[in-house]
What does this fold into?
Amino acid sequence: MELSKIDNFGVNEQTPREIVAELDKHIVGQNDAKRSVAIALRNRWRSRQLSEDMQDDVIPKNILMIGSTGVGKTEIARRLAKLVKAPFIKVEATKFTEVGYVGRDVESIIRDLAQTSVRMVRAQRTEEVKEKAAKMANERLLDILVPEPKRAQSPLGKLFGNAEADQQEENKSEDTQKPGREFVRKRLEAGKLENEIIELEVADSAKPMVGMFSGSSLEGMGDNLQDMIGSLIPKRFKKRKVTVEAARKILEQEEAEKLIDMEEVGETAVKLAEHSGIVFLDEIDKVAVKGSSSGPDISREGVQRDILPIVEGSTVMTKYGPVKTDHILFIAAGAFHMSKPSDLIPELQGRFPIRVELKSLQKEDFEKILTEPQNALIKQYKALLATEGLTLEFKDEAISHLAEMAFNVNEQTEDIGARRLHTLLEKLLEEISFDAPEMAKDGKTEVIIDADYVDKRLKDISKNTDLSHFIL
It folds into this structure.
């Protein structure tokens, strides 16, 4: 299958400037990281324009993000996942162990990516057959609401089955045009039967339990064994009483599954994962080993050695077929507080040529984080308290005070970046959140947060170093 035939998946038409503008809506600062990610995505589009021979030679330039916790590394990954039309998976390096130790092996990253790819392709194929599935589901609903009269078959009919079957097909096509059926059809299409209760026979979704392999390095074998046992055991059906509206959704899904060629979906998904997959490998610094390794550190170095062939380019067997990892884009991220990038094994370092350092957040950054992004924290708290009938208003000096406190506490204690704002805001609004229902009943519908209120709730805690260590 040629790459150009994989629909429009994995092709981001946005320019690097447009990608950065989209990320700016949710993430404050960190322009270097945004630019690197945007260029990497655009290079995907550029490589698609090349000849097929050259496409094989142009491999993605993997990115290593370095920065303390809470500065936006994971948030860039999350927003990237929503932005790109490509299989995306975020994993923590700490979840994996060296082959031979108990835990997940690194090849499961690619198996999960293939699964994500299959879900994407399947969703698109379902959308393509949606109208046809809806018509077929409607006919099945009519069969349930207006059942066919049962016909007795004569003994001769069993011998000359074809003629009998043809006759029944003719009779059936005549029945579908009967006045009673047409009357029900019109009512069904007009939405007048949506709340009617009908009995529907559906496939029992209970799967055979094959849990002995989960969490081990044989988990891929466990998946295959489960599929094999599932195909050997005949499907069981159970009767459910549901509304016509709910039955339509169930039947549409069943009909769509019949119309989709899962073999073709699997083949397309594998190609999509190979050429457009993105893996965000978080906490990479936690498997870095300082100096000579001994004891449990051997396993961590082993994880690096196991990750290496996947990043370099290898073939991983999945239930949908072999997946080549040569053109998968890997973005690794870590705080590197206790270690540094040079503590990674040299071969792995060489596979992440683009290094981006994310800067610690300043007071001005905290002010922007509180107010500017689409999902800004203050907007979230306003919306939450609005459900109780309270209008929450923050004065500019209160926001400035909060930002300054977050910056100072991060300086004095551990630097946890923007996550410090969650702690401060929870402490600040604790009393209001607790009393909100009673305040609304008493007619107090507006709460104004000013600098004095911030000082009253947080000043003592932020000034007392021991207390700030304990509470904030």
About this structure: Residues 1-5, 208-217 have pLDDT under 50 and may be disordered. The radius of gyration is 29 Å. Residues 281 and 379 are 30 Å apart (CA to CA).
